[in-house]
Design a protein that fits this description.
With 65 residues, the chain is mostly beta strands. 11% of the residues lie in helices and 45% in strands. The longest helix is centred in the middle third of the chain and has 7 residues.
C-alpha cells in the first residue's frame, strides 16, 4: 500500500502516513530502520509493507524494490 508522510519524528524515527483512502496509519521506528532510508520529509510518497495483522514492518520509496 502507498501513502503520504503526514507526520515524522526525526528524534525517534516514527510517524504517520495518510493512505490514499484517507486513513491515517502509524509506523514505528523499527519500520523506518528496516527501510534503509536516512530520512523522510512531510508530503513524501512512500510504500508501506504490512504483516498479516496490518502492522507496518518496512517503508520504501515507491520506485525502489
Amino acid at each position: 500500500m502507498q501513502g503520504t508522510v503526514a507526520t515524522w519524528n526525526a528524534d525517534d524515527h516514527s510517524g504517520t502516513v495518510l493512505l490514499d483512502n484517507g486513513q491515517e496509519l502509524d509506523f514505528p521506528a523499527e519500520a523506518f530502520a528496516a527501510s534503509g532510508l536516512r530520512l523522510l520529509r512531510l508530503g513524501q510518497r512512500i510504500r508501506l509493507d504490512t504483516d498479516e495483522q496490518g502492522r507496518v514492518y518496512r517503508l520504501a520509496i515507491p520506485t525502489m524494490p
